[in-house]
Structure formats: structure tokens, C-alpha cells
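Re: that backbone. C-alpha cells:
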């Protein structure tokens, strides 16, 4: 008899698995290390960014404040420019009426001013006031207010005396005391010589109640999280929340332009200081980076796992091809050799002829079983496996399966015990008889293959639970090599074969148990195994006594 053997060395699958795990780990580390470096760098950048974003936040608050100051200053300047656009000739007594008319018009249209006046730089300088009641210009009597006007005019009078020319006579602010906030405009003759001054006093209440709030609205309208605060010359809060803590946050401060330059404005966010804002940004970015890194790592892990699985599957497939070729080649060689003996009339003894005939029968049965398994497996994989169900007696099916093994079991000296505790009542199942026989045959085949000298097999058929809803159980028990706990989890996987020990010398395609499991589950049942390494195994097929309602031709992908 020819035997072809080119099996991989013992422990080979385990070594391969170890190598695969190592490659997986290396791949993971190769991705993890740069990722950790990147994360470290990212952390450093983010801490730097935190500092610069704090500065940027303060700068942006400063920009808003500048815009507010500019808004207020420009509005005041614009109004003064228009209200005080008085020509030098208007200072002459004969034009007083005209001047009064101009201020009447201005006072009707402007609400933020209190007094209008002109100073003519004669010797001595003279101040005329606009009288709101009589709507005419009147001589000013000596008063603190007039003192303030003089104070504002003095630098211009000096310049006038020094015959300084003013090409562009523009308005400017002047503050004497908190109540005396003036806008003044120099008046020049045709040759740009200073001849006088026009001025007006501004109403601080109007600025507090109208001008500043509308400037805030204009600048901060789209920044609802920012709040403005204004302090007056005594450091009292005029506008803004009476929030105890806000003082700590209001560090970005600006003075308003003249004549309100003793008022200070600040803006802040009631929810956070620039530091807190920058920290929150930092934490948000850091979390985002960490989440991204985790997702990336998860993706890499998943990709590596899939690659490793694919490798494992392709290893199993190539093992399968080599196993199946062995499985086919050995019985075929035996059949050929025995056939040749018989053709050449080398065996004349009737007993020998029967013996050889039995060998040929056993080997061809094994071939048929193997081919049936392979075909079934391909049908199961493609989802085309169909079970034709009918009412059948479980005991008859098991006996039929044992019958097919009769010769082989006898040849190998096996003792088989069929136990049926309650033989009086038949155990009827609505099942595919061929499939059930195939499942039992696969178990018996394994019990023989993995017996390791323990040539005894017990097959038990029993009913468990109550007669209506209980289950029918077929168990095949051997006293062979047994299966470790760890391996028990995998033996029902397709192509899986235990990788070490005696099992290496046993032929197999790694499909038998996966087909058993499929058949049993397709009948609404389950398969389980109890095994002790070196002591033997018991495989049990559990079928529900009332199958789940399916009757014929049910397809189980
Ligand atoms: P095969 O027997 O063709 O390898 P199976 O799917 O029938 O494939 O079995 C898968 C594996 O389970 C076997 O390779 C063997 O390692 C283990 N096994 C199955 N039945 C037994 C048993 N009765 N005793 C010990 N090991 C077994």
C-alpha cells in the first residue's frame, strides 16, 4: 500500500499563529509609535497655541475697545464739525443775529450739547454765549463756566498772538472739570490767521445714556457673549453689570477720547477670562486630537485584525487543499492496489478476497463521506443548502449511520454500544434524514479517527425534558485523545483543526464539525462538546421535539 506523506512539522500551525500575532503586534507598534510622537508634538503645539490664543483673545478685546472709542470720538467730532462751522466774520457784532440763528438750528437738531459760545481774540478777548431762551447771543457774565471757556481758549489766544497760522481748523475736545466737557473749533480768517473760537459743552448724561450704549450696540452687537463696562472719573461704574467678580476679568481697558478721557471702558466675557477661554479652546482641541488619534488607532487595529484574519483564512484554505488531497490520495491508492491484486488473480483465497473487498468498500465509503462533506460545505457557504424534511425515527437513523461504519469499526477492532434508555416509544423528528445521518457519521468518524487506541464508542439516544417540549439528544462518546478547553471554542469553525499533538497524524479537512453544527442548527437544535484532554470526548446533538414550525425544503443560508 502506498502512503504519501508530506505533512507540516508538529507545532507548525501554532508557530504560524505566533508569527502572525507577532507581525500584528509589530504592525500595531509601527503605527502606534509615530502616532504617539505626533500626539506629543500636537500637545506641545496646543500648549503654545493656548498662550497665543490668550494673547489673541486679549488683542481682539482690545480691538473692540478701540472701535468703541473711535465710534464715540468720531461721532463727537462730526457733530462738533457741523455745529461749530462758523465763519470768522460771524464774530463781528453786526453778524451776531446770523450766529444766533445758526446755533438755534444746531440746538434744535442736536440733543447732546448744553451751551454754545464764541470767543473773539480781540484785546481783551470777548466771549459771547448763545441764550436758549431769547435765541440770541449775549455777553457772558463772569462765572466758573466762563472761566472754563477762557481756559480752553487760552492756548489758541496765545497761538493767535504769536500769529501762528492754522491751515485746517478742526474741532477738538477739551475737559476742564467733569461738568465742563467742551468741543472747540478755531476760527480763522482768509489768511488762516486765528481770530477766534467757537465751542460747545457736551452733556455727560446724554453720553452715558445714549451715545455709549449705541456705540456698544454697533461694535458688540454680533458678540452677545461680550459685555461692556464704563467707569467715570471717580472710578464709579456707570454702565455694566454689578458683578462682584467682573473686576478680575476686566483687564482690557481703554480711555475714551477727549473730552471724555477721564472715563474708562472695558469689555469682558461674563463666562470666562481670556485664560479660561484659551484653556477651554486648548482642552477642546486636545480632546479632538485624542479622539482622532483613537479613531485612527482603532482603524489601524481593525485593518490589521482583518488582514490577520485574511491571512489565517488563506492559511486554513491552503491547509484544507493539502488535507483534502491527502484524504483523497490514501483511500484511492488502497483501492487501486487491492483492485490490481484482484485483477491479476494474486488473491485466490475467498477469505482474502472478502477482506480486500471490505477494504475497498470502507475506503470508498470514506471517500463518499469526504466528498459529501465538501459538497455540503460549498452549498452551505453559497447559501444553497436545502433540507428536505420528513417524519423520521431517530433510532433508525442512528442505526443506519452505524451500519455504514460496520466494516471499518470491525476492521479496527472497535466496540460500539448503542444505548437507548426508553426504547419503548419511538423518538420521532421532523428532519432531513440524509443530513442527520451525515451529522452522526461525522461524529462517529471523528470518534474513530481521534480514538488513539481507546477503541470503544458509546452512542446514546435519549429524550430530555417533558415529552411535548423537551429535546431528543444523540451523544457520541469516545475514549480518545480529548480536546483542550481552549480548542473546544474553535473546533466548530470551518477548516479549524487542532494544531498540536496526535491530531497531526490524523487526516481530515476540518469541515466535519462545522457541517454538523450547520445541520443541527438548521433543525432548530444545537451541538455541544464535553471533553477532557487525554480522556475522551462526548459530542451531543440536541434536537427540539417540536421543531420550530418549518416543515419542508427550508433553506438555511
Ligand atoms: P477533521 O476531523 O476533518 O479535522 P472536524 O471539523 O471534524 O475536522 O474536527 C475539527 C477538529 O476537532 C479536528 O481536527 C480535531 O482536532 C478535533 N476533534 C473533532 N472530534 C474529535 C474527537 N472526537 N476527539 C478529539 N478531537 C476531535
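Recovered sequence:
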Amino acid at each position: 500500500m502506498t502512503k504519501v506523506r508530506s505533512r507540516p512539522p508538529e507545532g507548525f500551525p501554532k508557530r504560524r499563529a505566533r508569527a502572525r500575532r507577532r507581525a500584528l503586534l509589530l504592525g500595531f507598534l509601527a503605527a502606534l509609535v509615530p502616532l504617539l510622537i505626533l500626539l506629543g508634538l500636537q500637545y506641545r503645539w496646543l500648549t503654545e497655541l493656548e498662550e497665543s490664543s490668550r494673547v489673541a483673545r486679549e488683542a481682539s478685546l482690545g480691538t473692540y475697545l478701540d472701535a468703541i472709542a473711535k465710534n464715540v470720538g468720531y461721532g463727537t467730532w462730526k457733530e462738533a464739525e457741523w455745529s461749530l462751522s462758523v465763519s470768522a466774520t460771524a464774530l463781528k457784532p453786526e453778524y451776531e443775529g446770523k450766529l444766533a440763528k445758526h446755533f438755534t438750528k444746531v440746538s434744535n437738531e442736536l440733543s447732546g450739547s448744553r451751551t454754545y459760545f464764541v470767543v473773539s481774540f480781540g484785546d481783551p478777548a470777548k466771549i459771547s454765549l448763545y441764550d436758549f431762551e431769547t435765541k440770541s447771543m449775549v455777553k457772558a457774565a463772569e462765572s466758573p463756566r466762563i472761566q472754563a471757556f477762557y481756559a480752553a481758549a487760552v492756548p489758541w489766544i496765545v497761538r493767535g498772538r504769536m500769529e501762528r497760522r492754522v491751515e485746517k481748523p478742526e474741532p477738538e475736545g477739551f475737559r476742564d472739570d467733569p461738568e465742563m466737557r467742551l468741543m472747540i473749533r478755531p476760527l480763522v480768517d482768509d489768511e488762516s490767521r486765528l481770530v477766534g473760537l467757537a465751542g460747545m459743552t457736551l452733556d455727560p448724561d446724554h453720553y452715558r445714556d445714549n451715545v455709549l450704549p449705541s456705540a456698544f450696540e454697533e461694535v458688540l452687537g454680533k458678540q452677545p457673549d461680550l459685555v461692556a463696562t464704563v467707569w467715570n472719573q471717580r472710578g464709579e461704574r456707570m454702565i455694566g453689570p454689578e458683578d462682584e467678580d467682573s473686576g478680575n476679568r476686566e483687564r482690557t481697558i481703554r480711555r475714551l477720547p477727549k473730552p471724555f478721557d477721564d472715563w474708562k471702558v472695558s469689555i469682558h466675557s461674563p463666562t470666562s477670562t481670556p485664560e479660561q477661554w484659551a484653556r477651554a479652546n486648548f482642552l477642546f482641541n486636545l480632546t479632538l486630537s485624542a479622539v482622532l488619534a483613537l479613531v485612527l488607532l482603532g482603524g489601524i487595529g481593525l485593518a490589521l485584525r482583518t488582514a490577520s484574519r485574511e491571512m489565517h483564512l488563506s492559511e486554513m484554505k491552503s491547509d484544507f487543499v493539502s488535507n483534502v488531497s491527502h484524504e483523497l490520495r490514501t483511500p484511492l491508492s488502497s483501492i487501486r492496489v487491492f483492485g490490481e491484486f484482484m485483477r491479476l488473480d494474486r488473491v485466490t483465497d475467498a477469505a482474502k478476497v472478502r477482506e480486500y473487498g471490505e477494504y475497498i468498500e470502507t475506503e470508498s465509503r470514506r471517500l463518499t463521506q469526504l466528498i459529501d462533506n465538501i459538497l455540503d460545505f460549498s452549498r452551505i457557504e453559497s447559501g444553497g443548502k436545502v433540507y428536505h424534511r420528513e417524519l423520521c425515527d431517530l433510532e433508525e437513523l442512528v442505526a443506519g449511520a452505524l451500519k455504514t461504519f460496520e466494516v471499518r469499526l470491525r476492521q479496527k477492532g472497535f466496540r460500539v454500544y448503542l444505548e437507548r434508555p426508553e426504547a419503548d416509544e419511538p423518538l420521532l423528528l421532523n428532519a432531513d434524514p440524509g443530513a442527520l445521518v451525515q451529522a452522526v457519521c461525522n461524529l462517529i468518524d471523528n470518534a474513530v479517527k481521534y480514538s488513539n487506541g481507546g477503541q470503544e464508542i458509546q452512542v446514546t439516544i435519549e429524550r430530555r425534558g417533558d415529552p411535548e417540549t423537551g429535546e431528543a439528544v444523540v451523544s457520541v462518546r469516545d475514549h480518545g485523545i480529548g480536546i483542550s478547553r481552549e480548542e473546544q471554542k474553535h473546533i466548530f469553525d470551518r477548516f479549524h483543526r487542532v494544531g498540536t499533538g496526535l491530531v497531526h497524524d490524523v487526516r481530515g479537512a476540518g469541515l466535519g464539525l462545522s457541517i454538523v453544527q450547520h445541520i443541527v442548527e438548521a433543525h432548530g437544535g444545537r451541538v455541544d462538546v464535553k471533553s477532557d484532554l487525554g480522556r475522551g470526548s462526548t459530542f451531543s446533538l440536541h434536537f427540539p421535539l417540536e421543531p420550530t414550525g418549518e416543515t419542508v425544503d427550508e433553506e438555511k443560508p
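The two ends are 41 Å apart (CA to CA). Residues 1-10, 547-557 have pLDDT under 50 and may be disordered.
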